[in-house]
Amino acid sequence: MSKYTNNMFESIKEALSKKSSVENSSYKDILKLEIGNTYVVRLVPNIENPERTLFHYYNHIWKSVMTNQLVSTLCPTTYGERCPIDEYRSKVYQTKDEAKIKEINPIRRDEKWLANVYVIKDPTNPENQGQVKILRFGKQIYNIIQEAMSGDDAEEFGARIFDLFDKGCNLRIKVDENQGGYANYTTSKFMSPSALEGAPDVDEIYSSCKNLESLQEHKSYEEIQKLLKVHFLGEEEAPVVNNYDLEDEEETYVAPIKATKVSSEDEDHDDVTSTKDAQIEDILKDL
To answer: Positive or negative, the Cα torsion across 112, 230, 24, 8?
Structure first.
């Protein structure tokens, strides 16, 4: 008699559905920042593993020669491991052949950080207020946080930037537009100490924090090497892969984009949701 039953099938189907829901919701937890708006958040510490309060990572991004869509993969140097893409680029640079070096320019290497934040003000999506979301940011916001933690502003702020009580300090994120049309965060700053509005349950805030490392799949050396060979060098038949998997940049997934380099002043532009094809095409401009 078969041990496989319809009830087992329903359980399997339900479990699969739940898994998909969790995966899809991960990127929806990223706070969307739009040019011309100001957001207010409080950084939330990881009380179980304080050293994991911020997740620092590197991503490789380029346009697939097989699908004409953006492909993104976590760089293994994030975890101190060898990266086949970095090694390939290094070998090309060592040739000093300008033509070959120009060919690898479309591969962009992004440096980003993730942090759990309690959202106090979100003019873009007010329903996020009073919830824990994930803030993804680049060097500009990182420098502001670093200055508050251990730089010139440490005496004024220091540990207060992670304090959820009345001595804690909010981070006001002001998204300006620079001359290139991209987001600029340099006028963002920490504010004077204040209690969180509505006196939320702090324990509930802590328990609502997301696993920051789970947002990026940690692929093996061989898997990334395969991505490089297929989607950049075009050496093998293309398998089904995930495209550039940042939910708030979904417009960039399918639009044909000229893959060129991003200037240093535009490093943080990909934290902003694009709404026009012209803006999408500018994402990889001037590399």
So the answer is: negative
DSSP code of 119?
E
Surface-to-core class of residue 62, CB atoms within 10 Å of its CB (0-12 exposed, 13-18 middle, 19+ buried): buried
Per domain, the residue ranges of the chain are: 27-282
**27-282: CATH class:** alpha beta
Answer whether residue 31 shows pLDDT above 90. Answer: yes
pTM of the model: 0.74
Q: At 127, is the secondary structure helix, strand, or coil?
A: helix
Q: Of 45, 67, 62, 63, whose CA–CA distance to 54 is shortest? A: 45
| Mean of all residue pLDDT scores within the chain | 79
Give the angle subtended at the CA of 41 by the CAs of 57 and 116, to the nearest 5°: 35
- The answer to whether 258 and 284 are in contact (CB under 8 A) is yes
Number of Cβ atoms within 10 Å of the Cβ of 126: 10
Question: In sequence order, which residues have a C-beta less than 8 Å from that of residue 222 and are 6 or more positions away?
Answer: none
Predicted confidence band of residue 76 (pLDDT cuts 50, 70, 90): very high
Residue found under tokens 């004077």: 192
3-state SS class at 41: strand
What is the pLDDT at residue 237? 57
Q: Tell me 137's DSSP state.
A: E
161 has a pLDDT exceeding 50: yes
